[in-house]
Design a protein that fits this description.
Layout (H helix, E strand, L loop, with lengths): L2 H5 L9 H5 L1 H11 L3 E4 L1 H7 L3 H7 L4 E5 L5 H10 L4 E6 L9 E4 L9 E2 L3 E3 L20 E3 L26
Parallel strand pairs: 1-2, 2-3
Antiparallel strand pairs: 3-4, 4-5, 6-7
C-alpha cells in the first residue's frame, strides 16, 4: 500500500510509536501535515475516533482505507457522521498475500469485500476448494495475479530459493 503513492510522487507519512499510542497527537500531526489519506485497521480507527483531535483530522481526509480485519458497520456510521465526502474503502487481502487483493467503497448500509484489484483475480471458496456464491460469505479468499507469490498451492513454499514465483492470474 505504500509503493503506489511513492512511485507517483506522493509523500507518505508514518506515525511514530508515540503517535500510535496517543491518538490526540496523531490527529494533530495529521492536521499539521495536511494528511488526506489514512490507512488503519477498523478496531484502531474506532478507538482513535474517541479523541476530538483525531475526529477533527478525519474531517480533512479525502480517503479512509481500512483493512486487516472485518469492517465494522459502526465505523462506517461514525466516519459518515464526520464527513459526507470522504471515500471510505474496505481493503481486503488474505494474510498470505500481505497485499490488498480486493476493495470496496462503503457507500451504503453495508461494506463488502468488493472487487479484485486490477491485475488480480480472486474467488471465495469453501474448505474443500469449491467456489461459493451468495452475499457476504466470511471465508478465505484465494487470490491470483501478477505479483502474488504461490505459497500454499501444491505445497510450494512461499519463497522457493529465496525468490517468489508469480501466479498466472488463472487461479
Amino acid at each position: 500500500e505504500i509503493f503506489p503513492p511513492l512511485l507517483n510522487g506522493v509523500t507518505v507519512c508514518f506515525a511514530s510509536q508515540e503517535e500510535l499510542d496517543n491518538p490526540a497527537k496523531l490527529g494533530l500531526r495529521m492536521q499539521r501535515e495536511h494528511a488526506n489519506v489514512l490507512y488503519a485497521t477498523p478496531s484502531r480507527l474506532l478507538s482513535y475516533l474517541e479523541y476530538a483531535e483525531f475526529r477533527e483530522a478525519v474531517k480533512g481526509l479525502d480517503v479512509v482505507m481500512s483493512g486487516g480485519e472485518a469492517f465494522q458497520p459502526q465505523l462506517l456510521e461514525k466516519l459518515r457522521a464526520l464527513s459526507q465526502t470522504v471515500h471510505i474503502v474496505n481493503a481486503y487481502g488474505p494474510t498470505e498475500t500481505t497485499i490488498v487483493t480486493a476493495a470496496a467503497e462503503g457507500d451504503g448500509p453495508a461494506v463488502t469485500l468488493g472487487q479484485p484489484v486490477r491485475g488480480l483475480a480472486a474467488r471465495i471458496s469453501g474448505n474443500r476448494g469449491q467456489l461459493l456464491r451468495g452475499p457476504g460469505p466470511r471465508l478465505p479468499q484465494p487470490a491470483a495475479g501478477n505479483g502474488i507469490a504461490i505459497c500454499h498451492a501444491r505445497g510450494t513454499p512461499l519463497l522457493p530459493h529465496g525468490r517468489p514465483r508469480a501466479m498466472d492470474g488463472n487461479g
